[in-house]
Known about the structure:
Layout: E1 4-5, E2 35-40, H1 71-74, E3 79-85, E4 88-97, E5 103-107, E6 112-120, H2 124-131, H3 140-143, E7 146-147, E8 159-160, E9 165-169, E10 175-180, E11 183-184, E12 186-193, E13 198-209, E14 212-213, E15 227-232, E16 236-237, E17 244-253, E18 266-273, E19 280-285, E20 306-314, E21 319-327, E22 347-348, E23 359-362, E24 367-370, H4 371-374, H5 395-403, H6 405-409, E25 420-426, E26 433-438, E27 443-448, E28 452-455, E29 458-460, E30 473-475, E31 478-480, E32 482-483, E33 486-487, H7 496-502, E34 523-526, H8 533-536, H9 548-557, H10 573-581, H11 583-586, E35 601-607, E36 614-621, E37 624-632, E38 647-649
Parallel strand pairs: 2-10, 12-20
Antiparallel strand pairs: 1-21, 2-5, 3-4, 3-6, 4-5, 6-8, 6-9, 7-14, 8-11, 12-17, 13-15, 13-16, 13-18, 18-19, 20-21, 22-23, 23-29, 24-28, 25-26, 26-27, 30-31, 31-34, 32-33, 34-38, 35-36, 36-37
Helix pairs in contact: 5-10
Amino acid sequence: MKQIKIASIILSAGLLLAGCTKSDPVATDTLESRTVYFTLDGSLIGSSGAAGSPTRATGDNTQTTSTAAQDQEKTVNSLLAVVYENDGFYKTFDVSSTGDPNNYKFAVDKDGTFDIYLVANADATLTAALKGISAGDPLSSFEQIEATQAPDADNAFLMTSPDKHTASITASVGVDLGSVHLRRLAVRIDLINSAPDITVTKITFNNRTKQSTLVTGNTMSDKAEWFEDVEYTQTLTGDESNPGKLEATIYTYENFSAKGGAYLPTLTIDYTKNGESETKQHVVEFQDALSANPADPDPLALKRNHLYRIVLQKGTTSLTHNLEVMDWESADIFTVADLPIDLTVEGAVWTEDPRQTLFYVHNVDAGRNTWSNATSGGTGTDGSISPAGWRMPTMEELILMWVYLPSINEHVTSPLGSTDYWSSTVYPSLTNNAFYLTMGNGTIASLSKSNSFNVRSVQDGVAALPGGKKYPYVDGAIIVSRENEQGVLTNSLLSDDEKAFLNGDITTNTYTEADTYNKVSPKFQVAKENCTEANTGNKGDGYGRYFYAQAYAASKTYSEEGAPAGSWRLPTQRELELIGALRQDLYPNITPLTETAYDCNYVTSTSASTSPSYRWIVSFRDSDYNAICTSKTGDPTSPPPLYVRLVRDIE
């Protein structure tokens, strides 16, 4: 299949209607006085392959080479010649057929040298505008005429000749211009659903361009009347061997909107997964893969006479797509064998769209080994025992794997076990030790590198959404895992009922790290500072530390500007570990967590399953995230009091 991929070449705006043969030129001795003759280049080879077979003007599609262009997209129903001379516009003439296949003519009523532009399939409004140009007007008067007919109006596709054709006219002889090319103003978008178990129920074209100027200046109108939203309700069943296809149906005019523009085009695809009644959405944004910053790509201009093919595919956790740009004339008709596949990552993510995640998690463990052996002598990108192209996770990445473990384990071939996993991070003050995390309960600690633990490899994300947004991300003092129906999968996030439980009396309604309540809020605010007597009215031990019952009481009286008392709560174990993993991004907007050598423990609302009267705490000792069971509830004197950093549900 002849294809031009975005990553290789973006077709130029001067793409011409292609053809295989053309009719013979008119014999010189038959030229009529002051008559201009020409041949439309683009006649097709018929099924017999013989010359003189049906032409584009008859809309025949019987050529032996199957191309993407449909017969209605090639038909020329009418032609106008817009004629200019040295001092500006002269006249617009009707063009007629000579009677021979693909040969046309029109007569000029005076001698002179003229520049000629052709317009095919103009509707009555455009025809009147072309014939109504004032004598002597500059060429821009033609170029900037707005065509308001739909890009696929009655299957009459508006076309122009992209270049001028100059002819010297005299009363004694006519002129043969030879071969003339036409170019469509329309853009075609095809949608192919090859994603198994996915049924597309509706496609919404947002900001479809419904009108255009005759000659594009690579600038985009900011007039709202140029744009519209159009729905297509065709059902497309996903299948790799027999995909549902929506071809030669979605058309628009060009769109050159700049980044951040109000009228950027997108396709919103409504779909269902087999066996589920919930309708989900996947948004196709037209992005330029050649952008200088792939994490924040520029919009991909939709250019006239281009074909954009979108192939829906089943991603690691959800729907994804591949986008190609092709020659509308010479691109082959879609064949299943040519399905483009670009998602080759063998792993899982915690988001619905793989482009939204920070890194991928490999499907299986890389093995069990000492830290020293695990980090050397292997094929990983870091020299570790990870597979080629993969690497060991950092401590922060290992924390994220634990925080979003339900979503990851739902999609990997081999779920992460409850055992210990090495990180690549060395303990900063004791370099013979490295950090590890116990996936069974979230314990984070450091031990000698001579210990043998498992390794689950990771790989950097391959792309990002506009603005480089990936989940989770920090926005001021807010951690965002999910928003606007995108981001982290919901099975790793607190539901509304679970958030209500955590905002209740957590001193009596206890839960453990293994319960469904030990998750993270989709979007939550981190308190700007630790709880103190000044901001809560609760003294604690007088040094900003609290026993558990005191910590709960302080959570109900703490307040900030715009966040009143009663809206804050103690974090879950996973939420406090997530705060630790993202704390460097939070620090410009909150007071840093206490990180002294021996006094750095923060309390959570999560009890320990092995000792329900104990709460999980997170320590920030010398950058050591150390989740351990040490805080006993209900005892006013033992163990030592703990620091408190609260959270607040935003969504």
